[in-house]
Every structure is written in structure tokens, then in C-alpha cells.
Design a protein that fits this description.
The chain has 149 residues and is α+β, with helices and mostly antiparallel strands. It is built from three helices and five strands.
């Protein structure tokens, strides 16, 4: 037999093997299909129950997403910290101003001024990116940095 004949027989054998594997896989899948009405009805009920549970889960997730979408714009999501020396003679940038703002620029700025003998805390409200009361330059810087993040 010529080499071309062997190649044709090899290709035919390979094709038969592939077809045999596909037939075996198809028979395995067909064996999983219920054969009587009771099994089929039971399968449909199980699928229906599972779909009901999935639908309930989706409804719960949709409700939670709606709550989060409502709360998200007012959550404190923008922040910045400015470190500085608040008092003459103090080095090491121990004082801080921390701005915490929501998407509309509302929130607060907290300043901690550190001296050798004591520390002072100041909390000031922020509305629309502006201080409700006069701000120090460091507090204004913290707000500006928070708004641009």
C-alpha cells in the first residue's frame, strides 16, 4: 500500500475515534434525562424552586444596591491630610489637618495642633467645599486636596 493510502486510513481511524468519543458523551448526557413522567415533574419542580430562590436573591441584592446608591453620595469618601509645624520652635510636622468630605464637598476638617506642653483639637464644618467658619491655610489646603482626589 502506498504512503498516501496509509494516511487516508489513519485519518479515517482518527475520525472514527473522535466520533466514538462524541457518541459516548452523548449517551452519557442522554442517560441523565428522566425517562418517566414522575422524574420529569420532580426535575421541573426542583428547577422551579431553584429559580424562585435565585429571583428572591436578586430582589434582595437589588434592594441593597438601591440603598447603597442612595447613601453613597453622602458618605465621606474624599479625604486628605496636611502635616505642618503649627508653633514656632516645633519641628517635625507634628500638627495635622484632616479633611473628610462627601461627593458634594460636605463634611468636616479636624485639626490637631501639637505643642511641647499640650495639643489642641479643632473641628470645623465644611459645606460645598467651603468652611462654615474661618479656616486656617492648612485646613483650606486639606479641603482642596480632598476635593481633587
Amino acid at each position: 500500500m502506498s504512503p498516501a493510502g496509509w494516511v487516508s486510513i489513519g485519518a479515517l481511524a482518527l475520525g472514527l475515534i473522535v466520533a466514538l468519543v462524541q457518541i459516548i458523551d452523548l449517551r452519557r448526557k442522554l442517560a441523565q434525562i428522566p425517562t418517566d413522567d414522575e422524574q420529569l415533574v420532580g426535575l421541573v419542580h426542583r428547577v422551579d424552586n431553584e429559580l424562585g430562590m435565585v429571583e428572591a436573591s436578586i430582589a434582595d441584592i437589588e434592594q441593597r444596591v438601591a440603598i447603597l446608591e442612595t447613601a453613597l453620595p453622602t458618605s465621606l469618601r474624599r479625604s486628605a491630610v496636611v502635616m505642618y509645624d503649627a508653633y514656632p520652635g516645633m519641628v517635625g510636622s507634628l500638627s495635622r489637618s484632616v479633611a473628610m468630605l462627601d461627593e458634594q464637598g460636605d463634611g468636616f476638617v479636624l485639626s490637631v495642633l501639637v505643642n511641647r506642653d499640650d495639643s489642641r483639637f479643632f473641628l470645623k464644618g465644611v459645606r460645598g467645599g467651603q468652611g462654615v467658619e474661618p479656616l486656617s491655610p492648612e485646613e483650606s489646603t486639606a479641603i482642596g486636596e480632598a476635593l481633587h482626589r
